[in-house]
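Exercise 7.
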Amino acid sequence: MIPVYNAEATIGRLVDALLASPPLPHTDVVLVNDGSRDGSHRECLACCDRHPGRVTYLKLAKNFGEHSAVMAGLCQSAGEYVVIMDDDFQNPPAEAARLVETAVAGGYDVVYGAFREKCHHPLRNWGSAFHDKVATWLLGKPPHLYLSSFKCLSRFVVDRIIDYAGPSPYVDGLILRVTDNIAQVMVTHCQRQTGRSGYTLWKLVRLWLTMFVNFSVAPLRLSAVLGLAVSAFGLVMAAWSLLEKLFGVDVPTGWTTLYVTVVIFAGIQLVMLGLLGEYVGRGLLEANRAPQFVVREVHGGGETGGREPRRW
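Solution. The predicted structure, written as tokens, is:
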């Protein structure tokens, strides 16, 4: 299952390589075009023509984001195992077989590909490291587990995570809700052959907000703890001021202390209100049945296709 975004230079060769040496017999490929602005649509159609019955192609109505595209592909997928991989050859096709073999041999629900050496930009690597630490704290992820986009899912897991109908899916968060029968294998991470990553700083921030708000109440708990800590600090300062008055200590007061105190506490209040607003806003989107994805076109497909993707 491959989410496609502006990959006209690589997607055709990637599909050909996968089907020339498939991870398992009767391997099929599901392509999901997530609002590409180049010739990816034409290349995906050509893949369907070159491999009739082996390639299913979904074109989404607009760019919904990688995780929504993955959910669309999982809804369409069939088979006992589904491998999710990038469209740019950074995940070598030959490594997909190792993920499947590990899952079959060990009876694992999910197998992640952990990269020996990441070939991303340093800023992207730092962002990934931050993401990993936060996921460990918020989602209860084992510290040694690296949540990569290159992974193999069993049918058991796929059938359960696609039941999630919220408008902002986070696939790894859904996986960790379903199972802890997870393994990882070391795989090669190659340089991107053409173009650049579709993940901008804003998209990474949106992904982090989704992980914060949709899959954990830890930020709310943190706000409660922070509120208690600030209240305790205020009580200590009040007691300190009272003792100074009782002992006749003449302490000059000025606007600086008041200014700093007001700014700090006002900032904390605004952050907590923003978090509450995120929770309320996302609840409103879900109540209004905002779509995870909207499928405009479906092409190709084998005789035993997956279930019909949800539509708006």
